[in-house]
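JOB MANIFEST
job_type = single_chain_structure
chain_count = 1
residues = 122
[input]
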Amino acid sequence: QVQLVESGGGLVQAGNSLRLSCVFSGRTFSTYAMAWFRQAPGKEREFVSVITRSGGSTMYAGSVKGRFTISRDNAKTTVTLQMDSLKPEDTAVYYCAAGFTYTENAAMYNYWGQGTQVTVSS
C-alpha cells in the first residue's frame, strides 16, 4: 500500500522559512503527480502546489506563488515544499497527496499523508 509521511512542520515567526518533506513508499513514485494541500482551522482543505511525475512542470495557488517552491527527487521518492516569507495566514495543517492526474482538484488524489502542522506567528 502507498504510504506518505510528511515532516518539517513547526512554529516560526512571520518572514521566516520552513521546508516540508514527504516520503512516498509502496508503489512506483515516478508514476504519480505529487501535491501539497493545507487546511486551516474552520476552513476547507485548499490546494497549495502540484508537480508533475517528472518534475518538469509545477503549479501554485495564487496565495503562495513566488514564496513557495515544490520539488521532487524520484530517486529518493521524496517531494519537498520550500516555504519562504511565511505569513500568519499560512498557518495550517499541510498534507501531501499522490495521484495520477496533474490537478488542483483534491478529489483526484488517491493517497494522502497524515499532515504536518505549520504555525506562523506574527
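[summary]
The mean pLDDT is 97.
The radius of gyration is 13 Å.
exit_status = 0
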